[in-house]
Amino acid sequence: MTIIVFSITTAIIAILFFLPKGILTPKKKEFVQGKVLIPQISESVAGGAEDFFPDEPTLGNLITLNPGEIQVAVISEDFDGDGSEEEVIAYRNLTEPDNPLYIALFSYDKIQKEYKRLWNVRTDVTRPSTVSFFTLDLTGDHHNCIILTGMNQKDENTMIALKVFFSGEDENLPLSYKKILQLDIDGTISIQNIERSQAYQMGFANGASFNITERRHNPHSTNDLDQIENTYAYDPIKSVYEIVGTTKIPGAQIEAGRLHELLSGDKHTFEKFINGLWYRISDEGMIDNEQYIYFDALNHETNFYSEGNQQIYAWKSSYATKYGLFITAQNISITSLSRKIDIELESLDSIRVKVYEDVRMRIIMNAPWNGSYRKVKNLHNTIKDNIMMLPNINAAYNSPIGKIIFNENGEYKIDLNGNVQNGKYAFYKLEDNEFLEFIPSKESKLQRQAYLVKRNTSDEDSTLSLSRIRFGIKGLYQFNEMPIMLY
Question: How open is the CA angle 352-358-362, to the nearest 5 degrees?
Fold first, then answer.
């Protein structure tokens, strides 16, 4: 009897072991944003290399576009639930004036083993480097919409949203679409994401649709910065977005001459205006001392500071808009991270910033860098008037970060076990303190660093103590790190 029981138990264990993974566990249904691929584009394509995002996979020979059609972005998603993903391609048509972007949907034909184009839709976007291309359940019915945003030839912001549905009547056209939203404005467009119920998250019920808001100039106002905000809501009966509310937003009072100069369409003029340090104003109107942005117009860099962390982005391109500047930027340390920065003029000392994290992410209202910023007045002049540059030195030091060599020509080299970093350095005094700044070369992966210098000259060979710091709107900020000793 014992042998029989043992044999039965062993058989049950073997069956459970070889069952497919997860068969006994109910699957949680998830509704996620579609995957986005950015294909490689040859730099010889009209428009320049900065209009595209290289070093990403492409569909290769799976999909063939027509002559003159250049891929800009691709989304893979199963719209009809047949287990096979459709491919949605945003492509640029070089055979038409202004090279507009199109959206095309390709479905895989299992018999002929190839992708077939079902339809394409023309958009008003003409600047590929400003494109955001993604899918999102706008209407709350668990079916993702295709959304493309970007700038058109008039430097207006545009958004198009397509709702894909399964027709089931025409075998040659199993998936159809309806354009539920089309906006072209000289302002900003945002999706108002809201928290949906747990029942929606688990797939048991539909959720509320997301509203769309647009801000544009108030045509009935004599102040050029007065704006109106229109709110669009989804009408499930008509299957379109319609205006449900309008709010007047007063603009700041700006001198007419300066306003005309800054918003004349010359991007270099606006770049000079934003050059410097800007601190964020909270929703309550208070100064956010923990978050600010530094625009370095000369070196075309943007520094983001938040809670002691610094992120440096290089400007890849910029376009003048009716109310400011649109910048596309790339992280200098992690080149796969990109940001689009939409800057609008609010007053002579304030701007409104909207940051789109990268082309793979949807636009949200409460992005951490979005908001109003004010300029730190006279920061550049104050430092310039009080700073005293110290002469370059010719010396070598040992340190925990490697051997550091300072040359009289203003260059440095750090050698740590054969890992060499180099760039330029500067010693200077501000008030009663001495500082050292390392400016790495463009080939280096390091970021610019500033240190508070303390000298110990009691010994025959002087030593230096370097404490990492940064300058903020409240003055000097010292990191809670151990000093680096140079000896």
Answer: 80
Closest CA to 130 of 153, 108, 114, 109: 153
The beta-carbon contacts of 223-228 under 8 Å, at least 24 apart in sequence, are 223/250, 223/251, 223/253, 224/251, 224/254, 224/259, 224/263, 225/251, 225/252, 225/254, 225/259, 225/323, 225/345, 225/346, 225/347, 226/250, 226/251, 227/187, 227/251
Signed CA dihedral, 136, 137, 142, 145: sign only: negative
pLDDT at 441: 79
Q: What is the mean pLDDT of residues 307-325?
A: 85
Q: Which residues contact 435 (CB under 8 A, 6 or more apart)?
A: 427, 428, 429, 450, 451, 452, 453, 469
322 and 260 Cβ atoms separated by less than 8 Å: no
Q: Where are the domains of the chain?
A: 35-249, 256-376, 384-486
Q: How far are the Cα atoms of 40, 226, 342, 456 from residue 266, in angstroms, in the given order?
A: 31, 22, 16, 51
CB of 25 within 8 A of CB of 68? no
How many other β-carbons are positioned within 10 Å of the β-carbon of residue 61? 7
Instruction: Looking at 172-266, list the stretches that DSSP marks H as alpha helix, in order from N- to C-terminal side.
Output: 198-201, 256-262
Residue with tokens 């700073």: 387
For 43, the token pair is 């730099």
User: Does 87 or 446 have the greater pLDDT score?
Assistant: 87
Per the CB < 8 A criterion, the answer to whether 421 and 437 are in contact is no
Instruction: Write out the CATH class of domain 256-376.
Output: mainly beta
Cα(240)–Cα(139) distance, rounded to whole angstroms? Answer: 10
User: How far, in Å, CA of 331 to CA of 311, rounded?
Assistant: 7
Cα–Cα distance for residue pair 104/256, rounded to 1 Å: 45
pLDDT category of residue 435 using cuts at 50, 70 and 90: confident
Q: What angle do CA 245, 250, 253 make, to 5 degrees?
A: 165
Q: How far apart, in Å, do the first and last CA atoms of the chain sit?
A: 82
Is 202 exposed, middle or buried (CB count within 10 Å of its CB: 0-12, 13-18, 19+)? exposed
The rounded distance, in Å, linking the Cα atoms of 150 and 131 is: 4
CA distance 477 to 487: 25
CA distance 113 to 276: 57
Tokens read off for 229: 């905000």
Are 50 and 129 within 8 A, CB to CB?
A: yes
Dump pLDDT digits (tens) for 249-303: 776 544 555 677 788 778 888 998 888 888 887 655 556 556 788 898 888 889 8
* Residue 21 pLDDT: 45
Identity (one letter) of the amino acid at 286? M
